[in-house]
Structure formats: structure tokens, C-alpha cells
Amino acid sequence: MATSTSDMPLRGGNPALDFTNTLDSRIGRYGPDFLKSADDLVILAERADVIDGPTAVMLNRAISLNPERAQGNIDDSLTLREAIYAVFLSEDRDEAYPAQPLAVLFDAAERARARQRLCRGENGFTWEASVESIGDLNGLFALAAADLLIARERRRPVRECKGDNCGWLFLDTSKGGRRMWCSEASCGSHSRVKRFRSEKGR
After folding, report:
1. Contact by Cβ (8 Å): 8, 22
2. pTM, whole model, 2 decimals?
3. How far is CA 201 from CA 68, 159, 166, 198, in A?
């Protein structure tokens, strides 16, 4: 079992969904929560390719210099995480996007967008975000969520894993579009075993 953002599986198919999945379970039981510190957030951001290695080193240095200030951003991270979760859970349930969580996401994404610069790189022009503090990471995850919203008509709905003790969100990229679990090997296998034992016990 995973114990932190350093070893949790990244199964969302998008950094914003991996961000919501930092709560180990939302079905059957609640938690444990992998997002407990500023260090946890930096680790996830680097693993999800939201930031690069040098930026992670810079942020870790900032954490060591002012741990109280860095930790103070985590409450904002958790608020944003739950807002993003509520927004995309509504897709699985075929419901309208909830107004208040959507407003939280909009605010974070718009503030992050205002800090972006248009840059020219090896592969052409791209928007690059300015990352100077732990708080800026929240904006990057909000932008990833905003990109999902923008692409809504070009993708399938976000799905919620139906496995016991899960509830993670993921993009269904399977051929048939009928994927039920964040992972066939874990949640899918456990669900099939449970169903088999239940049928055998009848």
C-alpha cells in the first residue's frame, strides 16, 4: 500500500486528477491523506511533471528556510483539491458542475494564468508559469484542471473508481470506454475476487 505522494500510483491520467487522488480512499473508508506537508506537494508536482527537478530543488530549499510559511499553503491546497474533486466527480454522476467548487477552481486558475509568460522553446511557443513559492503549485494544478474543462467536448467524462475503499478519479482512455476501476490490477482484481467469493457463498 502507498503511504505518501512519493509512492502513490499516478492513475488519474492528468495532474489535476492525481492531485485529487492524494486522499487514499473516498469509498468505504476515508483516508489516509497523503498531502500533509509542503514536501508532499513538491514531490507530487515533480512526479506528475508539473515542475522539473531544478524547480523542485528550489522549492525544497524555500521550505527549509521558512517551513511555517510553506506549511501554511497546505490548507489552500486541500481546499483546491476538494473543489477539483467535486467538479470532476459530477462528470461521473452526469450532473451539472457544482457552482461553489467551480468558483474555487476558476479563481485559482485565473490567478495562475495571470502569472504565466509566453516563451519560445525548442518545440515552439508555449505558456510557462512562474513558480517562486509553494503556493504557486496550487495554481499549476488548477491550470491542469482548467485544461480538462476546456477539453470537455473532446474527451470522455472523468470516471470515479468503483473499487472498494477507493473512489479515485481517472480519465478513461480504454478502447471501449467502459473502464470501471483506476487500475485493473488492483481495484479491478479485488472487486472480481470479492464478487466471486460472494457468488460462491450463496
Report:
1. yes
2. 0.90
3. 54, 31, 24, 5
State residue 77 phi and psi, 5-degree precision.
Answer: -60, -45
Between the two ends of the chain, the Cα-to-Cα distance in Å is 31
DSSP assignment of 66-94 equals -HHHHHTTHHHHHHHHHHHHHHHHHHHTT
Q: Give the model's confidence band at 201: pLDDT under 50 very low, under 70 low, under 90 confident, else very high.
A: low
Which three cell numbers, joined as nine digits, stand for 25?
Answer: 480512499
| Residue 112, beta-bridge partner list | none
pLDDT digits (tens, 9 = 90+) for 103-137: 999 999 999 999 999 989 888 998 888 898 889 99
**Which three-class secondary structure state does DSSP give residue 127?**
strand
CB contact at 8 A, 110 and 138: no
N residues, the chain = 202
Task: Let me know if 52 is exposed, middle or buried by CB neighbors in 10 A (0-12, 13-18, 19+).
Answer: exposed
pLDDT in tens, 59-93: 999 999 999 989 888 999 999 999 999 999 999 99
Nearest to 83 by CA among 71, 73, 97: 97
CB 141 within 8 A of CB 84: yes
